[in-house]
Amino acid sequence: MTKLALLGAGGKMGVRLATNLQGSQFDVAHVEISEEGRQRLRAAVGASCVDQERALAEADVVVLAVPDRLIGQIAHGIIDKVRPGTALIVLDAAAPHAGQMPDRKDVTYFVTHPCHPPIFNDETTEEARRDFFGGIAAKQHIVCALMQGPEEHYALCESVARTIYKPVMRAHRCTVEQIAMLEPALSETVAITMCLAVREATDEAARRGVPQQAAIDFVLGHLNIGLAIAFNVMPEGRFSDGALHAIDQAKRVIFKEGWLDRVFAPEAVLQSVRDICAPPKAAE
Fold first, then answer.
1. Residues of the domain holding 224
2. Could you say which of 174, 204, 234 is where a domain stops?
């Protein structure tokens, strides 16, 4: 069996991954430094933790289930503990794209991240419909990148990614730079920011007298059909002339000219991931 060391096994993400690795084709060594995390892991999956140095020395694959801002620090701290040919899997592109991975040519670096369950899906169970994050019951897609290492390691690392994020539909092969464009640029800088803007606008409609639940029901329904049309989920769908006029007028008010270039320019994406990986500022 492939030996896998799971670092940060008792954290929020680590427990999710440890749960999905149970009964898999991987022989998992759980590593967690905090007693609170060890107790959380034991309660969730009944697993005990092992010595980090032993786990790293024996591992074929190391999964870093740790916060973005700690990935570079932890990677540098463990890199001399792993054997040549070991594959290190990072769960976000921020630290790799920011240049924080150690310079060691005889190990593999692989980046993977979940897309999370899609809005338009065929889930039929309540558990799956309520699994918004993914990795429990709802199917999701994932993205993967082989940053460095032999090509044969791509299939090995993708199989790990499919296991920790299961159930998985498509696994998209990208570059590290492309995954950084997807997150933070596309998903957080743009999409989630717009989600919060929609919520603020909904609350403003309620503040101006629309019943709160009516505003929520109205906007969520319109988001459903609007996204279906925008992403060609319903090819026969069309925005009305009135909607097209409102869209044309709104773009001039809401968006600054050239905003896409400012968000997706390579230097903007690089600065964003550097900011994500920076240690938190001390309180004044």
1. 181-277
2. 174
The predicted-structure confidence for 150-189, as pLDDT tens digits, reads as follows 999 999 999 999 999 999 999 999 999 999 999 999 999 9
Per residue in 123-146, pLDDT tens? Answer: 999 999 999 999 999 999 999 999
Residues 169 and 190 in one domain: no
- Mean pLDDT value of segment 66-80: 96
Q: What is the 3-state secondary structure (H, E, C) of the chain?
A: CEEEEEECCCCHHHHHHHHHHCCCCEEEEEECCCHHHHHHHHHHHCCCCCCHHHHHHHCCEEEECCCHHHHHHHHHHHHHHCCCCCEEEECCCHHHHCCCCCCCCCCEEEEEEECCCCCCCCCCCHHHHCCCCCCCCCCEEEEEEEEECCCHHHHHHHHHHHHHCCCEEEEEECCHHHHHHHHHHHHHHHHHHHHHHHHHHHHHHHHCCCCHHHHHHHHHHHHHHHHHHHCCCCCCCCCCHHHHHHHHHHHHHHCCCCHHHHHHCHHHHHHHHHHHHCCCCCCC
> Do both 7 and 111 map to the same domain?
yes
Question: What is the pLDDT at residue 278?
Answer: 86
pTM: 0.94
Segment 183-207 mean pLDDT: 98
Last residue of a domain, one of 174, 203, 222: 174
